[in-house]
Amino acid sequence: MNLLEKLALFGMHRIDPERAHGLAVKALASGLVPLPGSVTSPRLATEIAGLKLPNPVGLAAGFDKNAEVLAPLSRAGFGFVEVGAVTPRAQDGNPKPRLFRLKEDAAVINRFGFNNKGMQAAATRLAQRPKDAVIGLNLGANKDSNNRADDFAKVLAHCGDHLDFATVNVSSPNTEKLRDLQGAEALAALLSGVMQANAALTKPLPIFLKIAPDLTDAEITEIGDVALAAGLSAVIATNTTLSREGLTGADKAEAGGLSGAPLFESSTRVLAKLSKSTQGKIPLIGVGGIATPEQAYAKIRAGASAVQFYSALVYHGMSLVPQIARGLDDLLKQDGFSNVSEAVGTERDTWL
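User: That's the sequence. What structure does it adopt?
Assistant: Structure tokens below.
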């Protein structure tokens, strides 16, 4: 992190978090953020669900909710970028304030509630996306929808021709009863509709599923079985947590999903358990608490074929992206791996 980035973060942390997030997006759009371009090497280049990635370090959904900064994000050093979540109709989300920094915990609590400008606005921007990047969309459901399961298929049908992958998000804690769709029967029905919409696209996409960390071992196994039966291409483990264990920040009691450092261990355990239950039959993407190359590497060795992060950008800025990718390259070299795919799951049992 250079001095300019330190000063920018210092200023950002002295204003409302949601306003700061908006300024960060505007800074990227305006070209004010130095970007490294593609970060890759023979060790980092990999393939997941048929997608060729320059490196396995991705941006998690939530940063660019409306696909407004696709071009700069594609030059930020990420191997792949996920935007959204996007719902069929535009919605304001939950009342403000709804984003809280827990600096002492290197964490964030949000209860946005799928605030976004809707699938039509997203599709217009996605149609102008850079073609040399791997870009996916997180699919969401409207809060007041009469058929939330159908909403995911609607967004996919409307935006799918401009995407490389799409993620079904039934794990956000900020839309009432959304997580109920993680149950086996409801999830199977939802995924059936999504896969039908996918088959109707000009070019069907890899479809991912994003799950919560607050699951029992039985639920993890059940979700893995449903994902395999539905023909999904990958599972993203995990979304934010409802747990507040061990927090010290002043806003620790705020409602919403917790992300950042406190999520690392619990999300990695879920990842490892899912890896074991699916026996490597479906690629996994590890998310939750990553802020260092070592943590990205730990997710991979626990069973992830790729990783994503977002909350750490709040505390470390965009320079963290190439730092994690290059640091991961060094760790792979140090341990004698010629490619990141060789490291996947090599220390899974230590997390079980």
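Residues 297 and 331 are 8 Å apart (CA to CA).
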